[in-house]
Here is the input.
Amino acid sequence: HDMGVDYLKSGNTAMALRELQVALSVDEKLPRAHHATAEAYRLSGRTAEAEKHLKRALELDPTFQGARLSLAARYIQTERFEDAIRESRILVDDPTFPAPWRALTNAGWAEHRLGRNADARKSLVMALDMKPNYWPALLNLGILESQENRRAEAIERFSQVLAARPGPSAEAETNYRMAEIYVSLGERDRAIAHLSAVIDKQPSGEWGRRSQEYRKLLQ
Here is the structure.
């Protein structure tokens, strides 16, 4: 198990799976080995197998918070939002869970996707009350503000995301969404600046391609 986790940390998912499968052959009832195996499968794109191991980890240990958080994220990815909310709320209501803002952010996004924006706002604001610089909650709340035409509030949230420096992918999405808002405000130059920031830092990927197409329309 420990060797498998070490391989995961170094990015070698194939060797991680090899070692973790050996661990499970020795003790199939080891919840943390199932959780690590799920992560290796997720990184390998084998999401069905990942979900299977997350559920097995929780069967063996219903108090396994990390597995439950990962399962909620998996449900969001597959648009099973009610399931995601259920798993997230279990964590929120657990006084021993050390990072309730993460579960609240998952619940908030799922609620937003179900059109329950008042509930989503409540969850995301609560997450930020607990951890003000938690960028996933800031990003999700910014998206919610933007879709409700609260553009000044959305720009403020997105600016906070960029200040947190969450990494290339999140920064690319944030800059693109800010560009959309500035276009709606008639501030073309500011929109182009944000699109250019995406293209300069991450030209490949979804947000890079979308930014290149959008900038062509504006120039």
Remarks:
- The longest helix spans residues 168-184.
